[in-house]
Amino acid sequence: MKKLLATALFFVLSLSLFAQKDNNSLNAGLEVGLPVGIQSSWMSVGIGATAKGLYGVGEAGQVSATLGFIRHGYQGSSTVNGGVSMIPIMGGYRHHFESFYGEAQLGLAIVNSAFRVEGFGASGSTLNGSVAIGGGFLYEDFDFSVRYQGYGTGFNTLGLRVAYRLPVEF
């Protein structure tokens, strides 16, 4: 445990040496998740929100940390009620090209599912690996982005996000 804490402290201190003071921000955004592949036949469009912290490194880079909640309902059957919700906990790197950027993320997702069919119901929760790749555009205080995200269960989405950016010093 001490070794892990020492490694984490070294990593944070190393990042702070290369931090760009004017390149840190927090943003909060609304998400739309479009199911991709076979899931699109039985899952509805997901809606949720995410918060993202960005810490400037180098001239054009930022390390990102994202936490969110996205909920998808079941569709296509009048006898099935319920849905799937995801809580992504992601870390990543964003690289800027003027107002455009590319971003890759890796992390975990808590996936909760619940359904009820004609009086019978079940629910469950799993912790899965998650990976995402995407890009976006910055306009004034807004961040518009699109990404492809896999949740480790074979469930994949195309995510669309609009966020409001707040510059911060940390």
Which keywords apply here?
170 residues, mainly beta, Porin, 1 helix
The residue-averaged pLDDT reads 85
Order of helices and strands: HEEEEEEEE
CATH architecture annotation = Beta Barrel
Assigned CATH class = Mainly Beta
The CATH topology turns out to be Porin
Structural class: mainly beta
Protein name: Outer membrane protein beta-barrel domain-containing protein
Keywords: Signal
Signal peptide: 1-19
Précis, in short:
The chain has about 170 residues and is mainly beta. The chain contains one helix and eight strands.
Which secondary structure elements does this structure contain, and how are they paired or packed?
Layout: H1 2-17, E1 25-36, E2 46-57, E3 61-73, E4 80-97, E5 100-117, E6 120-139, E7 142-150, E8 156-167
Antiparallel strand pairs: 1-2, 1-8, 2-3, 3-4, 4-5, 5-6, 6-7, 7-8
What does this molecule look like?
By secondary structure, this protein is mainly β. The protein has a single domain (about 20-165), classed as Beta Barrel (Porin). It is about 10% helix and about 65% strand. The protein has one helix at about 1-15; strands at about 25-35, 45-55, 60-75, 80-95, 100-115, 120-140, 140-150, 155-165. Strands 1-2-3-4-5-6-7-8 form an 8-stranded antiparallel beta barrel. The radius of gyration is 18 Å and the shape is elongated. Residues about 5-20 have low confidence and may be disordered.
